[in-house]
């Protein structure tokens, strides 16, 4: 499969499908929120809403030029380009790599450091049983059809949707019923079963693109990259490249809880690569086969989802797009404070609200425009049955509203699934809020002779188990043995049979109990870093008025790939750069030296294009009094200041401790050079 | 395959094999430097050298306790532990993840920022042709044998070596000839071909461990994890998880050069995961299947390997272990300055020397002890034929001298290999140092009629090619067509035949030529981050005198996982932590709040164990005058200072801008509390 640069962004689906990183376990498909909502009265309206928002933005107009900039300045290129490239795999060049590193550093500061989260670093190669438990082996699939002659593979929902668009375009104005029918089908393309999909393909005459050949019966294709560990048979079964980093946290829950002194709540976080082996990727940088996720798993007592720092974010205002507004005739977001949203019950609980607010602040810090960011709540039928509430941070770019962060209250689903698979208890002890309670405790009187006779050497393990039953387990065993003669139990790799006569009776006593072992709930903010990066780049891009050749990326200084460009005016000044390079290195300020002979205007322009926020020009006066000019990218205004001061001023600017206005007020303005 | 925690470090091979990240292409095996050296007169001496160094260290004595600490405090655990674990896969817990992030941040600063390197972020999934070109598909293998009955797999060299050890141990003192023979074989175990290995297995009666069954004929097992992209057939051939990050840089060379304005020298860097699908991993954290590499590819004009910043490192002194000293009777390292080492020709060139010095400084900054770090030069027969010179940074830990960084001058091998595979020119234009030259240029006179008649529509591509031949190519074509009637040439996907009569003659003229297109050489420092992390942890570990329960990790503050612990003395002080938490967050200083009821001594001890360098104690006096005590980990000395000052002082300490002695001199000492 070859790949050309020109195809990088050739696809512009009207709706970006939801981030599949949030998909896990029970929902049958990576959800495509507004399309899959059969309860929505008029899916077309929603379609229009999105299209409208897109068309109104400057972004779409600029996309062609923006695309060109991304490749020309090596923000991104197809991976293995000199070998023809591979669809869905992209490499980040120097500017994008630096911006991504800055975003991740900011993420670490904003979430991990600020919340004292426990960051871990787990492996990507994952054995099958883990992903059977999580639901990925069974259900992380897309429906695939093949060209019956060429065997080319297609995503069934994509080519059905393409066909429907063609049919809709060919309709006469009076065929309103037919329009409604086609739109309804279009809204559900990725919810169909194999059989339903096959029917739709036949009904609407879908054929293989390009060849026009017939298509095979749709079959689910698992989206995980498969591999195997060691020589055949060493590690039995397949292994996979992880589809998300979250499972690495869940399987380490016991050690994490212990590290946290056994106390809830706490959060663990992970940054790393994840994989999705797309059938036929088409949405450029927004739908790739290898990507970076940053995920948080915040473990809480399901009975108490308050958050100690909630007050600190209660006044944060977000563009909320809750369920009822999505279902209303006029589909508008509402500006609301997190405090009110939780108070009104719009957002399920404080912890979920707290993270929505923190995500909001994080994205603004990355350079997302407030009016191009909204939080959309999942509709009831979008959510997995176990989820309490889910919100997506959607960022507007030229492809439409794109889900970039999912914030989900997943209840106790994940830990429960791994407990079921491993028989390991993944619980935490939580004290009763209302103090200790008197509880009638039943403990079995063991007939050790009988156990020993029946089990021999294995008796000890079972005896130990029976002696340490907690209340719930004891009550259940007592009840079970009233009805049955034996009860099986699995300890480690062995299954034991508890026979009725192993237990001669039950002691009953009243005990003071201070709390209970519970399976924690989990609230999961999950960040698609590549999508955030792409959206931030697109939103930052603009062209200077009256000069369409001069593109600017207005990235926040903290996120910008390089902080300052160093521009000696001529050959004589080229010899003066040494002390500046040393100074900037000493202050850890990244710089780009541009000592080419190009005009100063052209060199400013090159710096603007990759988002460098400041420029130091070394000119004739520098030779005389060691002063330089400092230029700000967006306003192009300049001041003159001394060599001694420039590193300190830059440090403050880069860390957003002072604003450019402060610098303008303090130092003499100079007129920009051509 | 199950895994127990106890096995984490159960293997202690006397010599750690060389980092295979440096292996690429032509050398037949991941090299095992001193063992494979048949030119060494007495391999045993070398063995003793290493063993001696290991035995002399305090580290081995402490290893059991150190291992326990690593697992108890969740620095590391086997991946998927609750599912039984997988050999060769480990997860890093919170302290190790934070230390690793700090090491990588420091790496970015020390190399990328300081050298203005071009960092990229390429994908891990790699299609086969790329790794055929690099040599990994053909030669990145270990010899494997199978138990003929159980089919269990083993690394042939490992079990042969084990057998030799048993045989050596059983020798009588007088059997010196036999000893010499067994030692010679032992020194070469990983250099044998399949046939030789089979002979050795038969000769020395090697059988399958545990079962004693016979063994299969040895076969090469490729060490890359295999996968495939998309549904079968979409992307033809296998794909692999990259065995190193370097190839991602080489395939992007053209774009990187362009990004650098077409100028040499420049360096590109990448940090990322790499994989090695071991047959049967046995060396704990030093030999894993998934690991993080940080690699630099510094591209240079092969004719000019000087380095502009060489003077800045010329006085850096390293423990050098060059070839001649390894081959000498007394195998000792020598302390030498980088300047002298290059001047004497011990190190091949300035750029290589510059990087060796920078690696030295980097490792010391990570906390490696200077006397436990050496730079070992590869012996002539260890190096690939194309390499100009290679040095390994070896760090001493309880397993012996462990290769953690490879610094190799790889000449133009990698770019040439990809050019051969893709027919894409991966060259840079380099100006002649001695100014422009007069060159006699031959250009072909094309018979366009004949070309058109013969090739039809395809004529244009060939005409264009022939009109733009560079000097070398033109001279070669002219010579070839004197001997042959036609010469084939591949342009893009097509192969053309240049017939003699396409060219009616040759124009000859003298031109001024300013330079030539050359294939750059590459100097590659390649860092095994996990090995550095492990070695630093082990070297930092010690026990307080007279109190073996109190372990300390003396990590440099910049590398420490958490910078300060916050210790309120009692319940009343627990209510005073708020402002400290806010202050530390504001200054981005990571902290760990320990408000458990444990004694202050116990809490200090817990902090010492994970290497937290400083501790703030909030005590009775804090309530009165807002002062706190600040304690330093290694000396356990304490001072008292004001709340307002503590964040600023900590910031300076953490960035190593002031020393603890400075703090002791400025603030009043207080006696440590029990």
Your description of this structure?
Two copies of one chain form a homodimer. Chain A is α+β, with helices and mostly antiparallel strands. Chain A has a nine-stranded mixed beta sheet, with helices on both faces. Helix content of chain A is 35%, strand content 24%. Chain A is globular, with a radius of gyration of 30 Å. Residues 1-57 of chain A have low confidence and may be disordered. Among the domains of chain A are: 437-513, 2-Layer Sandwich (Signal recognition particle alu RNA binding heterodimer, srp9/1), CATH 3.30.720.200; 562-670, 3-Layer(aba) Sandwich (Rossmann fold), CATH 3.40.50. The first copy, chain A, starts with 42 loop residues before the first helix and ends with a strand. Chain A is built from 24 helices and 31 strands. At the A-B interface, strand 2, helix 3, strand 3, strand 4 and strand 8 of A face strand 2, helix 3, strand 3, strand 4 and strand 8 of B.
């Amino acid at each position: 499969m070859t790949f050309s640069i020109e195809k990088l962004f050739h696809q512009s689906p009207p709706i970006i499908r939801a981030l599949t990183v949030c998909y896990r376990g029970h929902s049958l498909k990576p959800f495509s929120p507004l399309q899959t909502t059969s309860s929505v009265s008029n899916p077309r309206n929603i379609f229009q809403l999105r299209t409208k928002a897109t068309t109104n933005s400057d972004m779409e107009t600029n996309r062609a030029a923006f695309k060109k900039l991304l490749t020309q300045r090596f923000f991104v290129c197809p991976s293995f380009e000199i070998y023809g490239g591979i669809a869905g795999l992209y490499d980040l060049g120097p500017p994008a790599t630096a911006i991504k590193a800055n975003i991740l550093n900011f993420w670490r500061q904003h979430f991990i450091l600020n919340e004292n989260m426990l960051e871990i670093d787990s492996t990507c190669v994952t054995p099958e049983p883990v992903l059977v438990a999580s639901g990925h082996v069974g259900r992380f699939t897309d429906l695939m059809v093949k060209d019956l002659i060429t065997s080319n593979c297609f995503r069934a929902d994509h080519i059905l949707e393409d066909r429907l668009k063609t049919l809709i375009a060919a309709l006469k104005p009076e065929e309103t019923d037919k329009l409604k029918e086609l739109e309804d089908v279009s809204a559900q393309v990725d919810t169909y079963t194999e059989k339903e999909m096959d029917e739709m393909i036949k009904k609407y005459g879908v054929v293989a693109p390009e060849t026009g050949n017939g298509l095979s019966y749709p079959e689910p294709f698992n989206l995980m990259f498969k591999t195997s560990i060691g020589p055949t048979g060493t590690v039995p079964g397949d292994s996979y490249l992880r589809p998300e980093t979250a499972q690495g946290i869940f399987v380490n829950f016991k050690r994490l809880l212990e590290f946290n002194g056994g106390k809830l709540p706490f959060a663990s976080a992970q940054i790393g690569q994840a994989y999705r082996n797309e059938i036929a990727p088409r949405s450029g940088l927004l739908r790739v086969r290898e990507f970076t996720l940053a995920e948080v798993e915040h473990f809480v007592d399901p009975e108490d989802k308050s958050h100690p720092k909630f007050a600190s974010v209660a006044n944060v205002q977000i563009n909320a797009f809750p369920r009822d507004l999505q279902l209303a005739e006029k589909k508008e977001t509402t500006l609301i404070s997190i405090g009110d949203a939780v108070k009104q019950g719009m957002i399920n609980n404080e912890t979920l609200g707290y993270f929505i607010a923190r995500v909001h602040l994080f994205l603004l810090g990355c350079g997302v425009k407030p009016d191009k960011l909204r939080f959309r709540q999942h509709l009831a039928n979008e959510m997995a049955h176990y989820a309490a509430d889910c919100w997506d941070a959607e960022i507007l770019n030229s492809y439409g509203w794109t889900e970039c962060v999912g914030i989900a209250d997943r209840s106790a689903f994940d830990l429960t699934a791994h407990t079921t698979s491993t028989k390991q208890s993944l619980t935490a002890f939580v004290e009763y809020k209302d103090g200790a309670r008197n509880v009638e405790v039943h403990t079995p009187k063991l007939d050790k002779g009988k156990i020993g006779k029946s089990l021999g050497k294995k008796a000890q393990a079972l005896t130990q188990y029976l002696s340490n039953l907690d209340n719930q387990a004891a009550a259940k065993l007592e009840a079970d043995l009233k009805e049955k003669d034996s009860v099986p139990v699995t300890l480690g790799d062995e299954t034991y049979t508890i026979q009725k006569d192993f237990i001669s009776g039950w002691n009953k006593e009243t005990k003071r109990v201070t709390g209970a072992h519970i399976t924690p709930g989990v609230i999961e903010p999950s960040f698609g870093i590549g999508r955030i990066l792409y959206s931030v780049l697109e939103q930052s891009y603009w062209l200077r008025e009256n000069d369409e050749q001069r593109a600017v990326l207005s990235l926040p200084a903290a996120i910008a790939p390089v902080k300052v460009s160093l521009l000696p005016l001529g050959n004589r000044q080229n010899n003066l750069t040494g002390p500046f390079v040393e100074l900037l290195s000493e202050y850890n300020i990244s710089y780009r030296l541009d000592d080419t002979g190009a005009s100063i205007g052209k060199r400013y322009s090159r710096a603007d294009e990759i988002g460098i926020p400041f420029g130091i020009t070394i000119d004739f006066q520098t030779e005389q009094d060691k002063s330089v000019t400092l230029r700000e990218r967006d306003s192009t205004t300049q001041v003159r200041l001394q060599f001694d001061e420039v590193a300190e001023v830059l440090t403050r600017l880069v860390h957003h401790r002072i604003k450019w206005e402060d610098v303008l007020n303090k130092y003499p303005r100079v007129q920009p050079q051509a």
